[in-house]
Amino acid sequence: MLLPYIKQSLDFSMTMSQLLTYVAISVFCVLTASSLDTFTAAVYEHAVILPNATLTAVSRQEALALMNQNLDLLEGAIISAAKQGAHIIVTPEDGIYGWNFNRESIYPYLEDIPNPQVNWIPCNHPNRFGHTPLQERLSCLAKENSIYIVANIGDKKPCNSSDPQCPSDGRYQYNTDVVFDSQGKLVARYHKQNLFMGEDQFNKPTESEVVTFDTPFGRFGMFTCFDILFHDPAVTLVEDFHVDTIVFPTAWMNVLPHLSAIEFHSAWAMGMGVNFLASNIHYPPKKMTGSGIYAPDSPRAFHYDMKTQEGKLLLSQLDSHPYHPVLVNWTAYASGIEALSTGSQEFKSIVFFDEFTFLELRGVAGNYTVCQNDLCCHLSYKMSEKRSDEVYALGAFDGLHTVEGTYHLQICTLLKCKTMGLHTCGDSVETASTRFDMFSLSGTFGTQYVFPEVLLSEIQLAPGEFQVSSDGCLFSLKPLSGPVLTVTLFGRLYEKDQASNISSDLMAQTLRAHPYIPDNVSQINSDNILKERRRAHYFCKRLIVPTGRRQ
Ligand SMILES: *[C@@H]1O[C@H](CO)[C@@H](O)[C@H](O)[C@H]1NC(C)=O
Ligand SMILES: *[C@@H]1O[C@H](CO)[C@@H](O)[C@H](O)[C@H]1NC(C)=O
Ligand SMILES: *[C@@H]1O[C@H](CO)[C@@H](O)[C@H](O)[C@H]1NC(C)=O
Ligand SMILES: *[C@@H]1O[C@H](CO)[C@@H](O)[C@H](O)[C@H]1NC(C)=O
Ligand SMILES: *[C@@H]1O[C@H](CO)[C@@H](O)[C@H](O)[C@H]1NC(C)=O
Question: N or C: fewer beta carbons within 10 Å in the chain?
Fold first, then answer.
């Protein structure tokens, strides 16, 4: 009871004797209660209740009614998590107001969220910063259940012509993560930096924000959905701010073979050496499912469900300060291998708009090398049996990806082709029958940012079944527990993202001009453009703008 009072004095006016008392009491608390070696994390995959699709703003009351419906469901998950001993719970991006918005129609859903430095417990002082019922409810849930809560809501900040960047409607609007500690205090606020294509209702902050918060169970950092593909703030949080755990609200649309949620998020945790708490929306019609609690060495809990309409609470224990692996040299192993000549059997096929160079795996076991530009990929493998009804291929890609975001990739991938036709290598496929007794995959990467993925049939992970060696080899520890969809080293060359001058606006226009055409439209055509259109599906949230005039 004493400590909160003294903390407040610290923030306002502090004398030397108060400081000493504060330090003394802090030390006392550290010795008796805090600083946990392990903690229990919870993530909630939330089946969000969506607003009506309309381009005109509803009243603030209607907006609040919808958000409170979602909060009723989140409250159930928060109480349940707290009862099971969770110290922190993460809820998804867009989990409180959904989507279907433009700039005007999101406005009644927004609240002014102050800088956490104001030292505010909204549950105790609900009117201190205007009308903020969402923040009050989240704060009270955190306080009453003694649990940290991470939520995603919208922030609004008025501006005027004294600021040349000020939008014409006189305000900034931000996609925002907030964190309330177990006393209900607002301790962190993060404005999403890398908005996904079509997220026009929000502004991006003028400077990338790097937001951390310290807890008795380690240092936390946060970012949102599409941010995970980029250097700032994601990599900076880990490398320069040494966070132990990332909290990650997301509204992620799965894209196979390399960007399904559980697959990529668990790979990022392993590649960066941090705990990662990913909370996704549950909305199967848009392929939104896939949440998890990932430690650097292995996933601890994950959920993928395209069948039901239900939300799902996951809990798991984690180390507060997970082991940070020694720096992997992602080229050492591969650059020591002598490549066999395989030129004439190579073929090209498209993986999510990128043209990979492939080689078919013809035997039940073998050693293969395939190269593209600066990247050579090496694979050794042994299948349990070589089936006559499935084709696997080894692929390499080194280039700039330019659809739905511009980012340079280097990828080595073993994958199952969708059909027996080689032109379907890289198409989305969810089931397989071929088991692998062993694999070892490496590449001559020009980056230290490589994310190791192993995805099994029916979108399952393989915890504890593989490892990465310090010389950059991804290898199986035992025969895999299920048939393989893909084994991939997904590398990012952040410094090459600016190499091309293709603007994202231009890309967005291109995509609008070539809308989604469903899978069954026509026979597969070797023309890449047609093939790209046929497979236009998306990861991360895509704004579904109702038909009608915009702005
Ligand atoms: C959506 O529309 C229904 C029927 O018109 C209405 O009852 C409901 O209040 C609306 N919801 C929101 C959030 O505006
Ligand atoms: C414009 O905004 C600045 C900064 O927010 C504020 O100090 C100033 O009073 C505003 N001016 C007007 C005319 O509203
Ligand atoms: C990684 O390994 C390669 C090949 O052995 C070596 O040339 C390179 O210097 C190593 N890189 C680092 C950063 O140690
Ligand atoms: C693959 O290479 C390893 C040594 O690098 C060798 O032991 C093995 O026999 C090779 N496998 C095949 C099928 O050639
Ligand atoms: C991109 O634009 C910059 C100037 O805006 C120019 O200096 C550079 O050469 C361009 N790069 C390419 C690859 O066209």
Answer: N
Q: What percent of the chain has pLDDT over 90?
A: 79
Does residue 271 contact residue 114 with C-beta atoms inside 8 Å?
no
Query: Does any ligand 5 atom lie closer than 6 A to the CB of residue 502?
Result: no
Residue owning the nearest CA to atom 1 of ligand 1: 52
Beta-bridge partner residues of 150: 90, 179
Ramachandran region, residue 432 (left: φ > 0; alpha: ψ -120 to 50; beta: rest): beta
pLDDT reading at 38 higher than 50: yes
| Residue 286 token pair | 């848009």
Cβ neighbors of 30 (< 8 A, separation 6 or more) are: none
Angle separating helix axes 16-32 and 2-11, nearest 10 degrees: 140
Distance separating alpha carbons of residues 444 and 151, to the nearest angstrom: 40
Report whether 72 contacts 516 (CB < 8 A).
Answer: no
Please list the residues that pair with 55 across neighbouring strands. Answer: none
Q: Which domains does the chain have, with CATH numbers?
A: 38-319 (3.60.110.10), 331-496 (no CATH)
The C-alpha atoms of residue 256 and residue 279 are separated, in whole angstroms, by 19
pLDDT at 150: 99
Give, for ligand 1, the residue of 48, 49, 50, 52 to mutate: max count of ligand atoms closer than 8 Å to Cβ: 52
- Which residues neighbour 454 within 8 Å (Cβ) at sequence distance 6 or greater? 461, 462, 465, 466, 474, 480, 484, 486, 487, 488
Q: Is 54 in the pocket of ligand 4 (CB under 6 A)?
A: no
Cα separation of 374 and 331, whole Å? 11
d(CA 87, CA 245): 13
pTM of the model: 0.85
Phi, psi (degrees; rounded to nearest 5) at 480? -70, 145
Reported confidence tier of residue 198, pLDDT bands at 50, 70, 90: confident
Contacts for 32 with CB less than 8 Å, ≥ 6 apart: none
